Amino acid sequence: MKKILILNGPNLNLLGKREPTIYGTLTFEEYFESIKKKYADVELVYYQSNVEGELINKLHEVGFSFDGVIFNAGAYTHTSVAIGDAIKGIETPVIEVHISNVHAREEFRHVSYIAPNAKGVIAGFGLQSYELALESFL
């Protein structure tokens, strides 16, 4: 059985409330329960933090034992050299995901410190971005 971590960064705990026209009205916990049912043959683990160091610690924790990480680092994608370095330092492949199309948004969101060290990037497909990433690991 494959073991996949879904890792969410800052402000993603506000899904369902925050900017519903961009992010929708479903909480991530509701969405996570639905994909756990859909992918019952995969061990899915979910972790969210608004704290950069906690995200790095989680990457280190699973980075040599899990089969994959689906990572939406939120705004840290565009600012955190440390998260990029953490991904570079682990063996578990990471797929960068975004709910919105970051390339259709502000200019600063066009830069990713994760992408150079990621297996791939999926953006702009709403919550389905996570399932597309999950399918790539299966």
TrEMBL record:
Primary enzyme class: lyase
Active site, UniProt feature: Y23 (proton acceptor), H98 (proton donor)
Binding annotation for substrate: N72, H78, D85, I99, S100, R109
Assembly mode: Homododecamer.
Reaction(s) catalysed (UniProt annotation): 3-dehydroquinate = 3-dehydroshikimate + H2O
Name used for this protein in its record: 3-dehydroquinate dehydratase
Function noted in UniProt: Catalyzes a trans-dehydration via an enolate intermediate.
Gene: aroQ
Family matches, as PANTHER family: CATABOLIC 3-DEHYDROQUINASE
Gene3D superfamilies found in the cross-reference section: Dehydroquinase, class II (3.40.50.9100)
Keywords: Amino-acid biosynthesis, Aromatic amino acid biosynthesis, Lyase
Stretches assigned to coiled coil: none
One term of GO molecular function: 3-dehydroquinate dehydratase activity
Pfam families for the chain: DHquinase_II
EC numbers: 4.2.1.10
Keyword Cell cycle: no
Pathway recorded for this protein: Metabolic intermediate biosynthesis; chorismate biosynthesis; chorismate from D-erythrose 4-phosphate and phosphoenolpyruvate: step 3/7
InterPro entries membership: DHquinase_II (IPR001874), DHquinase_II_CS (IPR018509), DHquinase_II_sf (IPR036441)
Family: Belongs to the type-II 3-dehydroquinase family.
Site (Transition state stabilizer): R18
Source organism of the structure: Lutibacter holmesii
